[in-house]
């Protein structure tokens, strides 16, 4: 099968990927808590044949030390509820939501996502995060986040239980045989009786096997723990790489980890984060981004940098060098982000320069210009073989989203790079992922 370019529309903040997008003069306000806002964007993405929409999620309000909720807060709708509503107003587009393995039980997420998969006829997928914010831990009865390695160990067991629960009803288990009175074939419904380090789950699930069998599992996070987790368990990984060269060496690293986990490189799809801004020229697109950036108070950027680096920057000279950083090993926050801070500090950037650079849309690759220029960049990355597609992280919504779907997608289609129609089947099939055999079948076959 030829490689297929995958494109996804991402919601980080409801108003866009840039943290301060809510201040843009054309930003939506209260409507970001209404269904119509998301339905319009989802249908627009579906008309453009994007593969899926993807909702980020945090389970807390971030509370920066000084800027707090005054300048930036992240209230959002609960994503699985929102995707269930979007399932009803779309037909083909994939529906992907973030979910945390740290503050839920596998039985919770197995039911929610299996139900979403049934309601959407096989279009759901789960983005696993281990959650790195102390504010989230404190909403779920903990003083702080679990240790980094523990979070990933818990996530590994979580995913194994999740898949076993989805398999606990075999595809043929439901009979509805009114004549015999057999509702289900009891030999095809399985208890798990799982007892592990973190979870104790009896099973079976009380939702039949989802249309996709195993929903695609996504993940982001390029710490060593994160990469090993992806190599063992994940179908689609989000990355943020600086150049095609970096992406090629990242891919080689992941291929080695996949081989170690006994998996074929083709089993992992890698999607690069991209912030596209369509404009009359590259310079005009950069001006638009700079306009957003100018709206962001330095106080907020500094608070974000404190949170990312684990260093309290209160009282530190913003024009001076970054104070010493904690070691990645054992660091409880997001290690990928900590390493980014280290890289900037090593280049000699001052505290405020690092704060401004990193808070500008999370440092995802910016690509601005005419539709042809943006398509050129996408084509170069894709044809290099470094990545399989892009997670489109539009700085400002809805404008950047509709500009891309209306102007860049037709250019990619004209070049024969992007699909003009959805293929048949479920999201799993459309992404080119192999069918998921039921984990209980080998045991049955051996009987
Ligand atoms: C595209 C993308 C989307 C992400 N979405 C979320 C999210 O919705 N919620 C969250 O807690 N973390 C999110 N993250 C952060 C990571 O999933 C993850 O929590 C973190 O990178 C893991 O840290 P590590 O680098 O220490 O492994 C996202 C990261 C990327 C690149």
Order of helices and strands: EHEHHEHEHHEEEEEHEHEHHHHEHEHHH
Number of strands: 13
CATH superfamily of the largest domain: Luciferase-like domain
The second-level CATH architecture of the largest domain is Alpha-Beta Barrel
- The total of helices stands at 16
Overall number of domains: 2
Helix content: 40-55%
Calculate Rg over CA atoms.
Answer: 22 Å
Q: Which structural category fits the helices and strands?
A: alpha/beta
**Which distinct ligands sit in these coordinates?**
flavin mononucleotide
- Biggest sheet strand order reads 1-2-3-4-9-10-11-13
Weakly predicted, low-confidence segments = none
Question: What fraction strand?
Answer: 5-15%
Mean pLDDT: 94
Distance between the termini: 36 Å
Which CATH class of the largest domain?
Alpha Beta
| Main sheet summary | 8 strands, parallel, barrel
Structure in words:
By secondary structure, this protein is α/β, with parallel strands linked by helices. Helix content is 40%, strand content 14%. The strands form 3 sheets. It has an 8-stranded parallel beta barrel with strand order 1-2-3-4-9-10-11-13, surrounded by 7 helices. A two-stranded antiparallel ribbon has the order 5-6. β3, α4 (106-119) and β4 (124-129) form a beta-alpha-beta unit. α4 packs across α6, α10 crosses α12 and α13 packs across α14. The longest helix is centred in the middle third of the chain and has 20 residues, at 148-167. Bound molecules: flavin mononucleotide. Flavin mononucleotide binds at residues 56-58, 98, 129-132, 220-223, 225-226, 238, 240, 273, 334-336, 391.
């Amino acid at each position: 099968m030829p490689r297929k370019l995958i494109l996804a529309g991402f919601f980080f903040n409801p108003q866009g990927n840039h943290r301060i997008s809510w201040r843009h003069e054309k930003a939506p306000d209260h409507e970001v808590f209404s269904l119509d806002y998301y339905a319009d964007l989802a249908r627009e993405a579906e008309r453009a044949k994007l593969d899926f929409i993807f909702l980020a999620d945090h389970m807390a309000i971030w509370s920066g030390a000084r800027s707090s909720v005054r300048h930036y807060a992240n209230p959002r709708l609960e994503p699985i509820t929102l995707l269930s509503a979007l399932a009803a107003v779309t037909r083909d587009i994939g529906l992907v939501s973030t979910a945390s393995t740290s503050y839920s039980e596998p039985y919770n997420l197995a039911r929610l996502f299996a139900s979403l998969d049934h309601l959407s006829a096989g279009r759901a997928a789960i983005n696993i995060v281990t959650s790195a914010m102390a504010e989230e831990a404190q909403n779920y009865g903990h003083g702080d986040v679990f240790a980094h390695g523990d979070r990933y160990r818990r996530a590994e067991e979580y995913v194994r239980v999740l898949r076993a629960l989805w398999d606990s009803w075999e595809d043929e288990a439901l009979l509805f045989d009114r004549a015999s009175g057999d509702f289900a074939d009891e030999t095809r419904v399985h208890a798990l009786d799982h007892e592990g380090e973190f979870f104790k789950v009896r099973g079976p699930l009380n939702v039949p096997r989802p249309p996709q069998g195993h929903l695609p599992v996504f993940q982001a996070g390029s710490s060593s723990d994160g990469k090993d987790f992806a190599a063992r368990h994940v179908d689609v990984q989000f990355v943020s790489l600086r150049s095609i060269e970096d992406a090629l060496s990242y891919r080689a690293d992941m291929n080695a980890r996949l081989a170690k986990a006994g998996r074929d490189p083709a089993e992992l799809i890698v999607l690069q984060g991209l912030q596209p801004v369509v404009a009359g020229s590259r310079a005009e697109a950069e001006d638009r981004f700079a306009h957003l950036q100018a709206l962001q108070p330095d106080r907020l950027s500094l608070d974000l940098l404190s949170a990312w680096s684990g260093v309290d920057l209160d009282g530190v000279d913003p024009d001076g060098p970054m104070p010493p950083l904690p070691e990645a090993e054992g660091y409880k926050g997001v290690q990928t982000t900590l390493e980014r801070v280290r890289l900037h500090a090593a280049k000699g950037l001052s505290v405020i320069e690092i704060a401004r650079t990193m808070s500008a849309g999370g440092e995802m690759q910016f690509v601005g210009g005419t539709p042809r220029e943006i398509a050129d960049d996408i084509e170069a990355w894709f044809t290099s073989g470094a990545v399989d597609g892009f997670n489109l992280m539009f700085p400002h919504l809805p404008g950047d989203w509709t500009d891309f779907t209306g102007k860049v997608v037709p250019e990619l289609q004209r070049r024969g790079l992007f699909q003009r129609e959805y293929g048949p089947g479920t999201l799993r099939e459309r992404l080119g992922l192999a069918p998921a055999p039921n984990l209980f079948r080998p045991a049955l076959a051996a009987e």
